[in-house]
Amino acid sequence: MGHIKLNQITKSFGDVEVIPPLDLTIENGEFAVFVGPSGCGKSTLLRLIAGLEDVSSGHIEIDGRDVTDVPPAKRGLAMVFQSYALYPHMSVRKNIAFPLHMAGMDQAEQQRRVERAASVLNLTDYLDRRPGQLSGGQRQRVAIGRAIVREPAAFLFDEPLSNLDAALRHGMRMEIGELHQSLSTTMIYVTHDQVEAMTMADKIVVLRAGVIEQVGSPLDLYREPRNLFVAGFIGSPTMNLIEGDEARKHGAHTIGIRPEHIVPGDPDGAPWSGTVGLSEHLGSDTFLHVHGTGLTESITVRADGEVPLRHGDRVGLTPNAERIHRFDQAGLRIA
Amino acid sequence: MARAVSTRTRFAWTALAWTIAFLMFFPILWTVLTSFKTEAEAIASPPSVVAFDWTLENYGVVQERSDYMRYLWNSIIIAGGSTLLGIAVAIPAAWAMAFVPGRFTRDILMWMLSTKMLPAVGVLYPIYLICIELGVLDNRAALVVILMLINLPIIVWMLYTYFKEIPGEILEAARMDGANLRSEILYVLTPMAIPGIASTILLNFILAWNEAFWTLNLTSVDAAPLTAFIASYSSPEGLFFAKLSAASTMAIAPILILGWFSQKQLVRGLTFGAVK
């Protein structure tokens, strides 16, 4: 089980309200990702769920039980920290067994669970080492091992991959995804990286200044961002936002079009045209930054990897009319 | 980048360091040497450094005249007791200030430190009178408490500094893993802080052992530690340097040996956190 419900919770530090009243439900077995720029309150929200911070008002329910005043240890949740937070004076084995030891589980059962977790996470050969003797990726696995042996109602991940290099991060992302598939336990994952959010989540919660901007599946957010903030935050490279006459033509204050929904071509007869500035060649794709369109300073276009356009070439741009997002004066989506 | 240092410069610095170290050690060395001289040789001018008749006579006289073991035992009880009591009080205090700081934590720490700036003699009268009132003059337990209070600011500060180095996330992880406050301090915080706690204990034990102002003023016979033992050779019938030196050597020997064996721990403790 692992159904988590936040009911009008708020959090203030002194006079500063970092989380205004907020409601959120995370279904059993769901992989939910809290994403937003730094300082948006996503980590605070996770810590409130964990019980490491007290809510200023409101209620938190886990599996129908009100846990608002229950200490972290008794909420049945496990957490993986950004810094791994391993116990440096204990071996890997003792680190993983620590929650079981705290729960007063008998030795044989502790042993069995530690070994099972170690085999799932490829840590069997390292059980007698100290955390200081492990690499970053291995430490992160130990932290995950310590979380899974408890068989918690839900896992909480606080930016667990930020300290790893890019290649390792990709690998661990896959491993955590696999883990979620095999355990089907609720997971809440905090990140500032929208790519992590898009690739891992069942449900993404986009936060800004403690306020939920939108909740939905990765593709919902991609297809129908509720406002300009979500539109600009989700998707890479970011959506092109155009104001002025071109937007008014579509009956909006701002229109948005993603780089992959613009087709480059002959300047003659195309609705928009400009000059190719910087182009980023990734092999599979080329991102063209087109200037001088008169719409906005620069329009990003995703083109074929081997597009024959170069710096300074004139290019025509044809947006896919069905993929144009319209936003009103307040930045909200116009249906 | 390594800087090139000429052999001559290096030699000069080494010589300077040895000279300073020797100057600092000299009084102790001289005390030890004097303790093996006769009273006449002890005050001879010019003094002889090693070419004198080595004698153990002073040690015999000192041991005969006063009961060294009783003073030693008092020193151990007072220094050890005040240190352990201080640690027991300071660990929870430092834990609270390091991990659950409040608005006034910084001020409380500064205030505690400021009490060390007050000259001890300023509170001699009140404390002396309180001791008379409570009937605890020349009492070991009273000295344990007083020395604990005198050194408490230093213990709390040292432990606070060590605890600050421990990432709060590790304690939060322990809390998530089901540890209550007791388990958190017992299984996670204390083992991680053991090097720091050990050096705090050592340093405080040495401070308490060498403390002379309060031990001299508040004891006479029953609770008198080694500081009083030394002092008892300094006055009534004039100065007897050789015997005074023998008494001093006997008084500082235990702490010197302890310090020698634990110097690595002490240096590590005193420079903890200075270099990451």
From TrEMBL, chain A:
Q: Which UniProt keywords apply?
A: ATP-binding, Hydrolase, Nucleotide-binding, Transport
InterPro entries the UniProt entry points to: AAA+_ATPase, ABC_transporter-like_ATP-bd, ABC_transporter-like_CS, ABC_transpr_MalK-like, ABC_transpr_MalK/UgpC-like, Mo/tungstate-bd_C_term_dom, NA-bd_OB-fold, P-loop_NTPase
Enzyme class, top EC level, equals: hydrolase
Any one of the GO CC terms: maltose transport complex
Q: Which residues form the ABC transporter domain?
A: 4-234
| CDD domains named among the record's database cross-references | ABC_MalK_N
Indicate the family of this protein: Belongs to the ABC transporter superfamily.
The name this protein carries in UniProt is MalK_2 protein
UniProtKB/TrEMBL annotation, chain B:
Q: How does it sit in the membrane?
A: Multi-pass membrane protein
Q: Which Pfam families match?
A: BPD_transp_1
Matching SUPFAM superfamilies: MetI-like
Keywords linked to the UniProt accession: Cell membrane, Membrane, Transmembrane, Transmembrane helix, Transport
Localization (cell)? Cell membrane
Q: Which segments constitute the ABC transmembrane type-1 domain? A: 72-262
Decide whether keyword NADP is in the record. Answer: no
Specify the domain of life of the species encoding this protein.
Bacteria
List where the protein spans the membrane: 12-33, 71-96, 108-129, 141-163, 184-209, 240-261
Record carries keyword Translocase: no
Under Gene3D superfamilies, the record lists:
MetI-like
User: What is stated as this protein's family in its record?
Assistant: Belongs to the binding-protein-dependent transport system permease family.
Q: What is this protein called?
A: YcjP_2 protein
Q: List the source organism.
A: Jannaschia aquimarina
Q: Supply the gene name.
A: ycjP_2
